[in-house]
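Most newcomers find our protein records easier to grasp once they have seen one. A learned vocabulary of local backbone shapes supplies the integers on the structure line. An example says more than a description, so a record of this kind follows:
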Amino acid sequence: MGTDSAVRADTFALLCALPAELGSLRERATSERRVLGLDVLEIPVGSTRLLAGVCGVGKVQAARAATILFAEGARRGLLVVGTCGGLKQSLVPGTLVHCTRAAQTDFVARPGRESEPDADLLAAWRAVAPGAEGWFLTADRPVLSLWRRLRLARAFAGPCVADMETAAAAAVAAGAGIPWAALRTVTDGSTEIGHFEFRANFASQAGRAADTVAALMERLSNEGARGLPPHGTAR
């Protein structure tokens, strides 16, 4: 696995569940290698690099992929992209949502199962990709029925969405001391036809979050050129 300290200094990990969620970044890949069963794509974006992994659906796959990407040298930060289901009426299909806290929702107990994104990384991403903010509630299975959405949303105040990877990958990043942030696009709202909305909207919405990453990398590079400290470091 990668051990070059220079790579660790300027390389971000990018994680998504499904191939379509890589968006146009897939076309930028200059190399691809298979590491412990994960296809790792190297994607240059300006002066920085991404190591991207399409992990598959679910928490176990996400945690495994994040661990591999970090071990391969992507230590600057973790970016999680993809789609999600809106759990509040205001989060309609097509809405970009930035994660303000990721929570695993398998059990009633919440301590130790929540992670906050890096504040500077979140602010930089919001600056180039305006959108809503909310909790990302990571579940074991798709939250498609209206009953399950309402039941999950009642446990959390404020805007929130359902996904199946973010909290697990964020927990790995937090444990490794690596800053992270997540952006997803709502494909289906909190309605009785959520399952049909997902099928109708996934193709058009899948890559939208990933397509904002190039602008984020450019902003971070410009901030570095002005002498600002790297995101996730002490000021």
About this structure: Strands lie at 11-16, 31-35, 38-45, 48-54, 77-86, 96-104, 114-115, 132-138, 160-163, 180-188. Helices lie at 5-10, 59-71, 119-128, 146-153, 166-176, 194-205, 213-225. Residues 13 and 78 are 5 Å apart (CA to CA).
